[in-house]
Amino acid sequence: MCAEHGIDAVGVSHPPAEGEVRIVSLVPSITELVCDLGLTGQLVGRTGFCIHPRERLRAVDKVGGTKDVKLDRIRALAPTHVILNMDENTREVADALAAFVPHLIVTHPLTPEDNRGLYRLLGHVFRREAQAEALVSRLDEALSVAEAAAADLPTERVLYLIWREPWMTVAPETYVSATLARVGWMTQPVAPLVRYPAFEIDEDWLAKVDRVLLSSEPYRFREKHLAEVSAWLDRPVHLIDGEWASWYGSRAIEGMAALADFRKSLVV
User: Fold this and answer.
1) What's the confidence (pLDDT) of residue 220?
2) Among the listed residues 213, 23, 36, 169, the one whose alpha carbon sits nearest the alpha carbon of residue 104
């Protein structure tokens, strides 16, 4: 993602906002980022999955989910800017919003480092450059912590489960995989045909897995699933907070540090 001159993920250049700003965010992690940039007062709409920061969001109207967006609700809020993501929101939603929203900001971070551009993009558009640069500095510190953890530990091949019935995982080119890689965890399989592949429990590539991570989202794996997975794959299996690996924006700072600590805690 390029932040130069406010260029978003689809190449649209956004000028700094003028006059009254009314923001709708359709991306949970970016909703939190908007608040952390000091823009809670300009945030007029969010999805039902936008849960952080909880207290500050109580008064912000919900406009449906990330996929089942309520266009009529957004229209009634008269936003000047709507923020979307290429993975979380659909092209159909974006096209519909373009008919009545002056500015659509499309995001698509693929690595933790891409958060620098995300911070700077929103900082530029909403005139929060200083706050954006402060977040960049904090992110760089967290990335250094993760890099140090990876350097001290052997690389492991991990199966990161995001769904059950069918079992599903993440491809290497996803943001989740890139984040896990920063602490020395390389996701399997290495060359799936889709970004979020389903698989059978007798796949040959599973023999290469060193460790299994059960994410808390989008499927909420719980303690009872540890034994279930261990029954078909005799490897160490752990629950993991999915926000650490999958939430970009400002939560990526906390996530990188938490992942590094978690990885170190598993050393025996």
Assistant:
1) 97
2) 23
